[in-house]
Amino acid sequence: MRIAFHAPMKSPTHPVPSGDRRMAQLLVKALERSGHEVELVSELSTHQREPDLARFATIERAAAGEAARLRALWKCEGAPDLWFTYHPYYKAPDMIGPGLAAAFGIPYLTAEASYSARRNAGLWAKTQAVTLQSVKQAALNICFTRRDRDGLLAAVPDAALDMLLPFIDTAAYPERSPAVDPSRLVCIAMMRSGDKYASYEMLARALDKLRHLPWTLSVVGDGALRREVMALFAGLPPQRIEWRLRLEAPEVTSVLSGAGIYVWPGCGEAYGLAYLEAQAVGLPVVAQHVAGVPEVVVNGQTGLLTPPGDVEAFASAIERLLGNERERMMMADAAWRFVHEERSLEVAAVRLAAMLAKVAGA
User: What does the mean pLDDT of the chain come to?
Assistant: First the structure.
């Protein structure tokens, strides 16, 4: 099929790396791997960090312009067979796809749509309504986590839903080699306000409780709060922390391969592709049992998930793996198998192909 692809949160061609951009890219690859022709039909971002009525009015006008452009183009060249929107939610609603799909009589699909009734206030109530209508119209809403699925079901009990668990392209991680330094910890995350900063803060507090152990930490990530994040770790001996900041993908893989444990609290994490990338090289994970993290880390098998907000438990879990080489190695093996056997691009492509075949048949 010819598939019109749109990611209103962040285009897969956006210059700034993030988990959202990476997942958009992976979905395009999985669809193409299934034999479909995918076209990025618009790079318009409807994303707003904070509600701004003036900016939203500008976005509305831009969306109307994009819809008019595509409508004229499709009348001349023919419409695609299907519209696929990745990650519509209250801060980034799809303001183009539903109208065009209805006008041209083609199926409309979403992936990782989310809805939360507690956001229904002010401008967010309006953008939530847009997202809710998208979910109702969709021939299929593909959910990555049970939390998102349950949220959509609560709002639209008769919504068409199916599950596609988070995945990565494992081609970049073909072999599992023993850790160069089993006592080296590593984390990968953007340095920005909100949940990311809260996770950095929790990690710094946990490591402060582990000064008696011979660990070091590599930090991969950058962002507007670089100075503030670095200040969180200022009380620790500087030789303990290696700031790698922004790296290209091959360098990130190298950093992961040289470490022994992936540590990231994951406050509010939708799921976190970095957890899968770490496990793909054979790193066990220490994180919190929160939000979507349990969708990508198997507690007790590929890592340890601790109670939300419990710094002591998080620190103890790190200490447990640092002090138990046998358990760390067992989890490392399980982590590598988990990602390569269950969460690969190939597995996702097969699953997506089956979903789209049902939609096309209907």
Answer: 93
CATH superfamily of 170-342: Glycogen Phosphorylase B; (3.40.50.2000)
Read off the pLDDT of residues 22-66 as tens digits, 9 standing for 90 and up.
999 999 999 999 899 999 999 999 999 899 999 999 999 999 999
pLDDT for position 172: 83
**Whole-number Å distance between alpha carbons of 234 and 357:** 54
Quote the pLDDT of residue 179: 64
User: What single letter denotes the amino acid at residue 286?
Assistant: V
Mean pLDDT of 222-241: 93
User: How is the chain split into domains, by residue range?
Assistant: 2-167+344-361, 170-342
In angstroms, rounded to a whole number, what is the distance separating the alpha carbons of residues 303 and 315? Answer: 14
CATH 3.40.50.2000 matches 2-167+344-361: yes
Phi-psi region of 106 (alpha: psi -120 to 50; beta: other; left: phi over 0): beta
Tokens for 81? 């067979």
Q: What is the three-class DSSP state of 219?
A: strand
2-167+344-361 and 170-342, same CATH topology: yes
Q: Which two tokens stand for residue 54?
A: 């003036």
CA angle, residues 277, 283, 287, in degrees to nearest 5:
80
Q: What are phi and psi of 202, to 5 degrees?
A: -65, -40
Residue 331: is its pLDDT beyond 80? yes
User: Residue 333 burial by CB count (10 A; 0-12/13-18/19+): exposed, middle or buried?
Assistant: middle
Crossing angle of helices 19-33 and 273-280, rounded to 10°:
70
Provide the H-helix boundaries in 224-362.
226-232, 249-257, 273-280, 311-323, 325-342, 345-361
| Prediction pTM value | 0.87
pLDDT in tens, 165-179: 999 999 888 677 666
